[in-house]
Design a protein that fits this description.
CATH class of one domain: Alpha Beta
Structural class: alpha/beta
CATH architecture of one domain: 3-Layer(aba) Sandwich
Radius of gyration: 42 Å
CATH superfamily of one domain: P-loop containing nucleotide triphosphate hydrolases
CATH topology of one domain: Rossmann fold
Number of helices: 19
Length: 543
């Protein structure tokens, strides 16, 4: 259940915090006070769409935080699940579940397991036949779940094959054009006879040749500095010290050091001479290197950032050429797999359809019983399951449609062609009442679903909502006195102007305040008659 919701900067809501309770929580208040904005905020935290225009004027972001208490839930921390969503006017969006950053899609998927919102838009969903199959399958539950998962996996692969067949060069001219291009690319790569590390070696050799004059000059200077004169001088120094070595042993170490320097200098001199012999500026060689580097640059520009990537691309081209040249054989394999999948999906779809047809009768019967309680005595719902022989859909081969007959002697027809606004609200409530008996979503929200309902029907609607609240936390925005009267907790939503800004506030009402609020919404004013009526409604709730 939702234990707390914190809302900042949404519409006329400045900074609002609401503590909610188990059972039936009803929001009432004058039109425009911000009741539906609270539901909008819950929809936002559930991953719903958000328009930056709803951010409070003068602010650059909005913030919604929801705390759900679910002690047995594996996602909870100390029994609590904290969800936050912060949206900025520049479009930046930040969602967190227990402090962990998630995407909006992840948030929406997560919250769909905890909160279900029904509003006037939900009534409109009843006009969409695509939602009818969802209602039926939710009612069926586990019995159909595994079959649908198996079917959907095959359906996904089936669509992949159909797409691949479309893209597998069915047009002969297109196939030849593609082959010509790929063969040209492969030939260009193969003719280059690329070698890994080749480019680096060429660049190094090019650098040496281009700097040959500078290298020769400096090698010559070095050679002159360590040439024969220097070596001869070291040799003379060694011979001079050898003549006095017998007089004092301390000269021995110096002589040894000079000998090492003599030999090292001879080695350095030979190396420099060798370097000088290797240096030459070969114009034909540099031209050859430049041409090769240009070839490599051109291939890099077309096929990859380096030789390794070019060679990898060449292998991919070879694979694609082989695939195209053998496409007819490959397509035959795909068509064979497609046919096998069609047979397997058909068998699964037939099983699913049998279950749906049987369960559709049960669901229709249950909904009709609820409609009878909701003062739609002549209305008969018929959930029609039609098996489409030549079509595959995401959920099978069935078309599911909720049909209704509202009066005796009339033909059944689509909901959109017969039902009024008030009837749609009652049909939606009847469906939800039946489905809540089988689903496990802990929080159900009704946003002015009672629109178009009055009189005796409104009391029955209140009773149905109360029944739902026994197994689910119910949050309801309503203008009906019977619904306010049957609530476990009543919240009064109001607005006030402070410092030339309108803000929304919420107040949890005590029992006397509840009586006054029921009286107000029953007739628009509080007097002895309306207070008496309010007390009667409240006493009915107690009974």
């Amino acid at each position: 259940m939702i234990s707390n919701i914190h809302i900042k900067n949404i519409g006329i809501i400045d900074d609002l915090e609401i503590n909610l309770n188990k059972g039936m929580n009803v929001f009432t208040g004058e039109t425009g006070a911000g009741k539906s904005l609270i539901i909008d905020a819950i929809n936002i935290i559930c991953g719903g769409r958000f328009s930056k225009e709803i951010i409070r004027k003068g602010e650059n972001h909005s913030y919604v935080e929801l705390c759900m208490y679910s002690p047995d839930d594996i996602n909870s921390v100390d029994g609590n699940i904290i969800i936050t969503r912060e949206i900025y006017s520049n479009g930046r969006n930040m969602c967190k579940i227990n402090g962990r950053l998630v995407t909006v899609a992840e948030l929406k998927n997560f919250m769909s397991n905890y909160i279900e919102i029904h509003g006037q838009n939900a009534n409109q969903q009843l006009f969409d036949n695509k939602t009818h199959i969802k209602y039926l399958d939710n009612f069926i539950g586990k019995e159909i779940f595994d079959l649908k998962v198996e079917y959907k996996n095959k359906y996904t692969r089936y669509n992949e094959i159909k797409r691949e067949l479309r893209e597998n060069y069915g047009d002969e001219k297109e196939k030849q054009r593609k082959l010509d291009l790929l063969r040209y690319q492969l030939n260009e790569i193969q003719e280059a006879k690329l070698k890994t590390g080749e480019e680096e070696k060429l660049e190094e050799k090019r650098k040496i040749i281009l700097n040959s004059e500078k290298i020769a000059k400096n090698l010559s200077e070095a050679n002159e500095a360590v040439g024969e004169n220097t070596i001869d001088m070291l040799s003379s120094a060694i011979r001079a010290l050898e003549k006095i070595e017998e007089i004092d042993s301390k000269y021995t170490e110096t002589i040894e050091n000079l000998r090492n320097s003599y030999y090292n200098l001879q080695e350095v001199s030979r190396d420099i001479n060798n370097y000088m012999e290797d240096i030459e500026f070969d114009e034909r060689e540099i031209e050859k290197i430049e041409t090769r580097l240009d070839t490599l640059y051109n291939l890099k520009r077309k096929y990859g950032n380096n030789i390794e990537e070019i060679l990898k691309y060449g292998e991919e081209v070879k694979t694609e050429i082989d695939k195209i040249e053998n496409v007819d054989k490959y397509n035959e394999q795909l068509k064979k797999e497609q046919k096998e999948l069609e047979n397997e999906m058909t068998k699964l779809a037939e099983k699913i359809s049998e279950i749906r047809k049987e369960e559709a009768q049960k669901l229709s019967s249950k909904i009709n019983k609820e409609l009878l309680d909701l003062e739609m005595t002549n209305a008969i719902i018929n959930i029609k399951v039609e098996y489409k022989i030549n079509e595959f859909f995401e959920d099978g081969k069935d078309s599911v449609q909720i049909l209704i007959k509202t009066n005796v002697g009339e033909n059944e027809s689509e909901l959109s062609k017969i039902a009024s606004g008030g009837e749609m609200s009652r049909i939606m409530l009847a469906i939800k009442k039946v489905l809540t008996e089988v689903d496990r979503i802990p929080v159900v929200i009704f946003d002015e679903i009672d629109t178009g309902i009055s009189g005796k029907a409104s009391r029955t609607v209140a009773s149905k909502m109360k029944s739902i609240s026994k197994e689910h936390q119910v949050i309801c925005v309503s203008h009906l006195a019977p619904i306010a009267a049957i609530a476990d907790y009543n919240y009064f939503i109001s607005k006030k102007v402070e410092n030339e800004r309108t803000t929304t506030s919420v107040q949890l009402l005590n029992e006397q305040e509840v009586i006054c609020e029921i009286a107000r919404i029953s007739s628009g004013e509080i007097n002895e008659v309306t207070l008496k009526y309010a007390n009667e409604l409240r006493n009915q709730k107690a009974s």
